[in-house]
Design a protein that fits this description.
Order of helices and strands: HHHHHHEHEHHEHEEEHEHEHHE
CATH superfamily of the largest domain: P-loop containing nucleotide triphosphate hydrolases
Strand order of the largest sheet: 2-3-6-1-7
Strand content: 5-15%
Number of strands: 9
Number of helices: 14
CATH topology of the largest domain: Rossmann fold
Largest sheet: 5 strands, parallel
Radius of gyration: 37 Å
């Protein structure tokens, strides 16, 4: 190769290199332009989405603003305590400030649920008590046979409560130094029904909180709103269902909570049952003191060995005795039979059980039972059997009498 060829080669190489560089630069520029255009399109879309969340094509406000207005109206229509009202108003104002933020709808849902709960609670709504011991005695006698000592203790407790109310002492003052009633007895002896009778005698609504198997104190006290599944505890829910701030709340089977949560639950119970503390009960969801001093708490349990000493110290323990065979016979004839007949769509004219059948064949067919649940199940079985055979045509329709001779046909023999 001559010198001129050698001298021309670098020029050729430089032109090729320059050409490649210009080609690469134009491709990169084109890519950058496309990327920039895509970003502009994406940003414009996002902005349009944000805008469309609050306004339609005509610029009119969309449902989000109307939802905030509904919250304002709900707050104005409620009778919240002043401090709580200021708190929820501030929460709604914050919603307005974050209207274009991505977290708006999450905050709207959380705030709406909170305001729905606090505005539905009976902060100032009370039911009027029936201040009449004779009426209380009548209700207890109507619903319960025997239990003379139990009824007397209940009436003594109510007499102090009613006396204080007639003298103008309400809230915590009406329960000052007066322990909460705790009905203790074996299963089926009537603890829960006595609690309902106390509520009926006072003319108050009653709500039941079951403690059997309760595994966390948060079930009573609620969860903080930091959790997405947060909700108030059972105490606040009971108040909402009752619709008054002075219902009877039945704490049923407080000895049957789970072992691992027992100490925490007993701690909450101390706060609920102590008149000096329940004036400002704090539910973690509501996060505002709730006055429970007007609530009449009644506890039930099968025994007291699994209840903490601090809780027992705040309870007036009333032992519920087991029923004798004679008492069960009277209860079966006067209460259970008529009740079960009514539940079955039958009347006392449809079925009669002879007196000599009760104690011999119905009271103790399977041995001793402290309550009346076994008796109730036996009577239910008799009525079902009679109805079944009458519909099959194996028994004549109309009044049927259960006697000593035919009772074995209707009572299971084990």
């Amino acid at each position: 190769m001559d010198d001129s060829a050698r001298n021309d080669s670098p020029a050729i190489n430089n032109q090729q290199t320059t050409g490649n560089t210009d080609s690469i630069s134009s491709e990169e520029q084109k890519t950058q332009d496309n990327t920039f255009a895509a970003l502009k399109t994406s940003n414009a879309y996002n902005e349009s989405q944000k805008t469309s969340s609050f306004a339609d094509d005509s610029g009119n406000l969309k449902p989000t603003t109307s939802q905030i207005q509904k919250l304002d109206e709900k707050i104005k229509a409620s009778t919240l305590p002043k401090e709580l009202q200021d708190k929820v108003v501030a929460m709604v104002d914050r919603l307005r400030l974050i209207g274009n933020d991505s977290s708006f709808f999450i905050e709207l849902d959380s705030t709406s649920r909170y305001i729905d709960w606090v505005t539905s609670l009976p902060w100032n709504n009370s039911s009027k008590d029936i201040l009449d011991l004779a009426h209380a005695q009548q209700v207890l006698d109507k619903n319960h046979y025997g239990l003379t000592d139990v009824k007397e203790k209940i009436l003594e407790y109510l007499s102090i409560m009613l006396l204080k109310q007639t003298r103008g002492q309400t809230g915590a003052d009406s329960f000052a130094r007066a322990p909460i009633i705790s009905l203790v007895g074996l299963a089926g002896v009537g603890k829960t029904t006595v609690a309902f009778s106390i509520a009926e005698s006072l003319g108050r609504k009653i709500e039941r909180i079951p403690f059997g198997g309760m595994g966390s104190a948060s079930q009573l006290r609620g969860k903080t709103r930091l959790f997405p599944d947060a909700e108030p505890g059972l105490v606040i829910k009971a108040l909402k269902r009752a619709g008054t701030n002075n219902p009877v709340i039945l704490l049923d089977e407080i000895d049957r909570v789970s072992e691992e949560a027992r100490s925490d639950i007993m701690g909450v119970l101390v706060e609920l049952l102590d008149p000096t503390q329940n004036k400002a009960f704090t539910d973690h969801f509501i996060d505002f003191p709730v006055d429970l001093s007007n609530v009449l708490f009644i506890a039930t349990s099968n025994n007291t060995k699994d209840i903490s000493t601090a809780v027992i110290d705040r309870l007036e323990v009333i032992q519920m005795p087991s029923y004798t065979d004679e008492e069960k016979t009277v209860i079966g004839k006067s209460f259970v039979l008529s009740e079960v007949l009514k539940e079955s769509g039958m009347t006392p004219e449809d079925l009669v059980i002879n007196d000599d059948v009760w104690e011999e064949s119905l009271i103790r067919p399977l041995g001793y039972d402290p309550g009346i649940r076994s008796l109730q199940r036996i009577i239910q079985g008799i009525i079902r059997k009679v109805a079944y055979l009458q519909l099959l045509g194996k028994l004549p329709k109309g009044k049927f009498v259960v006697t000593r001779d035919n009772v074995k046909q209707f009572v299971s023999q084990w």
